[in-house]
Amino acid sequence: MKLTKEQREQLKQKYGGHCAYCGCTLSDKWHADHFEPIRRNNDGTCLNPELDVFQNLMPACPVCNKNKHSYPLEYWRKTLEDANRKLTKYVANYRLALMFGQVKETTQPVVFYFERYGTPDVIREASNER
Fold it and tell me: 53 near 2, Cβ under 8 Å?
């Protein structure tokens, strides 16, 4: 779906100019992510056009959009929550960083910015970043 400049600005402001997922302030290079993933044929046409609508879009930073890819939200959340295990198992430098206290792991669940948006703390944080 091609967005007009007005729609693009409206989408960017959906969460106060922040990425719907991580909450970072969006730069000029932000992406419009399909919250419910769409699938495309090899020719680029959409297999589920009912999801290729403005109401299904979320403002996202490039890192979150590329990492979410075409995953459903809960699958992506579980992937992110499993990151500590994967890093510890497969990345030697991460294990060393843990051993030397350079990083601290957490088992807190992943809560996306849009899930917190509108709560007093998030509003205060967003105001301070402007």
Answer: no
Q: Does 122 have pLDDT greater than 70? A: no
Give the start-to-end residue ranges of the domains of the chain.
Answer: 5-72+111-129
Neighbours of 27 (CB within 10 A): 10
To 5 degrees, how large is the angle CA 91–CA 68–CA 55?
165
d(CA 30, CA 64): 10
pLDDT score at 107: 87
Q: What phi and psi values does residue 60 have, to the nearest 5 degrees?
A: -140, 145
Contact 15, 113 (CB under 8 A): yes
Nearest to 37 by CA among 9, 15, 65, 78: 65
DSSP for 28-41, please give it.
TT-EEEESSPP-B-
Of 4, 118, 95, 53, the C-alpha closest to 12 is 4
What's the confidence (pLDDT) of residue 130? 38
Chain-wide mean pLDDT for the chain?
90
Fold of 5-72+111-129: DNA Binding (I), subunit A (1.10.30)
